[in-house]
């Protein structure tokens, strides 16, 4: 192998079964369905040696061109259930939350930043922000940064 190997996109139907099983084992590990690589390999139906041989060389390609990461900065009233209601709105509109940072409340209001992917959104950003702003206990909501 060369020092800087090329990345190649190949249809999964053309890939040898062992490589697909290595990907499956990696997924089992990352999702916590397997406790260790030995268990993941066994569950995927491959040997440990095959897993270790290929684990660093195969991964699933995700088309990130359709997914943007958007961050909203909000100020929430410090009452139980407010953050949960905001998360429900995001979920109902198809946002996939990837980070959430809720700071300590000061004077009854807590600053909060939520980042999410937009690949499965069922509406535009303006509609989503307005739905969050309309949620009881949300004082402010603005788009911090949008990036591809």
Write up this protein.
By secondary structure, the protein is of the alpha+beta class. The chain contains 5 helices and 4 strands; from the N terminus they run αααβαββαβ. The protein has a 4-stranded antiparallel β-sheet with strand order 2-3-1-4, with helices on one face. A hairpin with a 6-residue loop joins strand 2 (96-102) and strand 3 (109-117). Helix 1 (17-30) packs across helix 2 and helix 2 packs across helix 3. The radius of gyration is 21 Å and the shape is elongated. The two termini are 32 Å apart. The mean pLDDT is 89.
Distance between the termini: 32 Å
The stretches of 5 or more residues where confidence is low (pLDDT under 50) are: none
Helix content: 25-40%
Supply the helix-strand structural class. alpha+beta
Count of alpha and pi helical runs: 5
Globally, the shape reads: elongated
Mean pLDDT: 89
What fraction of residues sit in β-strands?
Answer: 15-25%
Largest sheet: 4 strands, antiparallel
Radius of gyration, Cα only, in angstroms? Answer: 21 Å
In total, the number of strands is 4
Order of helices and strands: HHHEHEEHE
Strand order of the largest sheet: 2-3-1-4
Defining key terms:
single chain, 148 residues, alpha+beta, 4 strands, 24% strand
What is the compact description of this entry?
The chain is α+β, with helices and mostly antiparallel strands and 148 residues long. It has helices at residues 17-30, 37-44, 48-54, 82-92, 125-133, and strands at residues 69-77, 96-102, 109-117, 138-147.
Write the layout of secondary structure elements.
Elements: H1 17-30, H2 37-44, H3 48-54, E1 69-77, H4 82-92, E2 96-102, E3 109-117, H5 125-133, E4 138-147
Antiparallel strand pairs: 1-3, 1-4, 2-3
């Amino acid at each position: 192998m060369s020092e800087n190997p090329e990345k190649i996109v190949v249809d999964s139907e053309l890939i040898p079964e062992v490589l697909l099983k290595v990907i499956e084992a990696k997924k089992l590990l990352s999702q916590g369905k397997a406790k260790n690589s030995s268990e993941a390999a066994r569950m995927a139906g491959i040997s440990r040696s095959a897993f270790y041989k290929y684990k660093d060389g195969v991964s699933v390609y995700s088309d990130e061109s359709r997914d943007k990461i958007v961050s909203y900065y909000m100020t929430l009233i410090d009452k139980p259930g407010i953050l949960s209601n905001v998360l429900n709105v995001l979920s109902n509109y198809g946002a996939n939350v990837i980070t959430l940072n809720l700071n300590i409340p000061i004077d009854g209001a807590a600053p909060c930043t939520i980042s999410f992917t937009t690949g499965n959104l069922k509406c535009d950003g303006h509609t989503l922000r307005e739905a969050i702003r309309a949620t009881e206990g949300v004082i402010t909501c603005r788009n911090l940064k949008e990036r591809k």
